[in-house]
């Protein structure tokens, strides 16, 4: 079994241990209950949608322009986490976290994975060192789960260019459509340009095809427990959906002025002269159609679980890899009241949907406001399967699933020392309780927000709360040292970026 070699524990590790005591006690208390309720091993269906914003689905936003009745039904059967976060504001690092339970900063994988000849954006400074693959020594959930499990990966992988780094070589028995690319090469309609997907008939839609593959996998599930990761390429650009679905939303779309439809966001890339626009209104018909197509196909998969008699023994986890795309590439969605979007360390870039259904154990149709993060998903799967994995940054969410009044007190950390093509600034952040501290990595300046009062992160209260700034900043500095975080580098000898002093 592979493992991660970590640095020796620092004081923050001891603080984290203390903060997690409640959850550890709760975990031990429910172990016997797990076995009593569930005589058979759990199956796991993990659905990951690409670029789906927290506000894009009706369970989180009843006023959403997008229609998601199947996700509304799933929410009624699940615990809906209303403060769930991706581990990074862009896809590859957050997927590393979902696959390993390890913070991507610890693995030096902090930006989306580029082609071997690709170049990262630079602004005032050179960006930090970052690898472009999921390291082979990192243990994936597919590798960690018992050999008795049938492990299938379907859809977007984007965790390494070399075939040796694709799902079939990272613990999965079957890989359908998972390879180096982070978007559907050739578009969403067949013929596809995907070396791990058998060609479909011309005009076939990729989201429906991946769902068909998932349904076939469930139909062939025998007595072996399974892990099925269904990782849709939707709703990533290009914006393509069946025409009848687009036409439906074209009839619903309102005619708005430029000022009504778009606002302005900070511009951090010096090479761009224009102000960065951000979408204020969910109004894009092709994107709406893509969300609806995703929702209807999730419904098909969940219906197959019922039809196959697997629903009572299958844990369903639904999430996204980062926030909605609001400031670039067509500005397809609005995350308001959340600020920013994909590529930003603000809430719009990292807050994502998360619903978890554990049949017979989790209380249906409940909301859980405890802040949680992508690394917690592998940790929860390991807890439910009695799989022992050490050196995780994530934590089992089972106590929160069993008790809607439970909570976990711990800091959550993000590190993005890059300039995103969506306009996001190089930044790190820590959240503890209702407070979130953001550090701008060009200058070291900090911003503090009270997310209970200021979900849109409009009012920096760092000057009014110096003691809270000191508390969170110390946590962040200690965490930088623990994970050996990488930082911006100078572009010229006369202009140096901020660097931490330990």
From TrEMBL:
Gene3D superfamilies: 3.30.1120.10, Alkaline Phosphatase, subunit A. This is Sulfatase. CDD domains: ARS_like. Transmembrane segments: none annotated. The keyword Signal applies. PANTHER family: ARYLSULFATASE FAMILY MEMBER (PTHR42693), ARYLSULFATASE G (PTHR42693:SF42). Belongs to the sulfatase family. SUPFAM superfamilies: Alkaline phosphatase-like. It comes from Thalassotalea fonticola. Residues 1-29 form the signal peptide.
């Amino acid at each position: 079994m592979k493992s991660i070699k970590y640095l020796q524990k620092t004081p923050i590790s001891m603080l984290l241990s203390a903060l997690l005591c409640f959850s550890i006690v709760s975990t031990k208390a429910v172990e016997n209950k797990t076995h009593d309720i569930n005589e058979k091993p759990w199956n796991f269906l993990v659905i990951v949608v690409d670029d789906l914003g927290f506000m894009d689905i009706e369970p989180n936003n009843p006023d959403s322009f997008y229609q998601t009745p199947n996700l509304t039904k799933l929410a009624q059967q699940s615990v809906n986490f209303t403060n769930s976060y991706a581990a990074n504001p862009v896809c590859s690092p957050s997927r590393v976290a979902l696959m390993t339970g390890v913070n991507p900063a610890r693995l030096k994988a902090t930006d989306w994975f580029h082609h071997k000849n690709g170049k990262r954006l630079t602004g005032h400074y050179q960006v930090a060192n970052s690898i472009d693959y999921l390291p082979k020594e990192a243990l994936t959930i597919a590798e960690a789960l018992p050999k008795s499990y049938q492990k299938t990966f379907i859809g977007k992988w984007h965790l390494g260019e070399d075939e040796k780094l694709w799902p079939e070589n990272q613990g999965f028995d079957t890989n359908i459509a998972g390879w180096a690319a982070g978007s559907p090469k050739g578009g969403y309609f067949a013929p596809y340009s995907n070396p791990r997907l058998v060609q479909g008939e011309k005009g076939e839609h990729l989201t429906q095809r991946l769902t068909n593959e998932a349904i076939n996998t469930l139909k062939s599930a025998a007595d072996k427990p399974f892990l099925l990761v269904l990782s849709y390429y939707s709703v990533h650009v290009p914006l393509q959906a069946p025409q009848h679905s687009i036409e439906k939303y074209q009839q619903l779309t309102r005619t708005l002025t430029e000022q009504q439809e778009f606002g302005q966001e900070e511009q951090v890339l010096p090479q761009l002269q224009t102000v960065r626009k951000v979408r204020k209104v969910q109004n894009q018909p092709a994107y709406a159609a893509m969300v609806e197509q995703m929702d209807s196909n999730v419904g098909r998969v969940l219906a197959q679980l019922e039809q196959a008699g697997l629903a009572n023994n299958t844990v369903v986890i639904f999430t996204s890899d980062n926030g909605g795309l609001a400031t670039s590439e067509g500005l397809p969605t609005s995350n308001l009241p959340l600020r920013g979007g994909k590529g930003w360390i603000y809430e719009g870039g990292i807050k994502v949907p998360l619903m978890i259904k554990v049949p017979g154990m989790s209380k249906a149709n409940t909301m859980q406001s405890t802040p949680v993060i992508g690394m917690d998903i592998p940790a929860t799967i390991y807890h439910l399967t009695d799989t022992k994995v050490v050196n995780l940054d994530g934590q089992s969410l089972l106590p929160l699933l069993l008790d809607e009044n439970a909570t976990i007190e711990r800091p959550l950390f993000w590190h993005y020392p890059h300039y995103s093509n969506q306009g996001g600034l190089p930044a790190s952040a820590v959240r503890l309780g209702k407070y979130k501290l953001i550090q701008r990595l060009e200058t070291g300046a900090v911003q503090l927000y009270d997310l209970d009062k200021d979900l849109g992160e409009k009012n920096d209260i760092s000057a009014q709360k110096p003691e809270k700034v000191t508390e969170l900043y110390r946590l962040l500095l200690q965490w930088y040292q623990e994970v050996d975080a990488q930082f911006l580098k100078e572009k010229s000898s006369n202009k140096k970026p901020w660097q931490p002093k330990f």
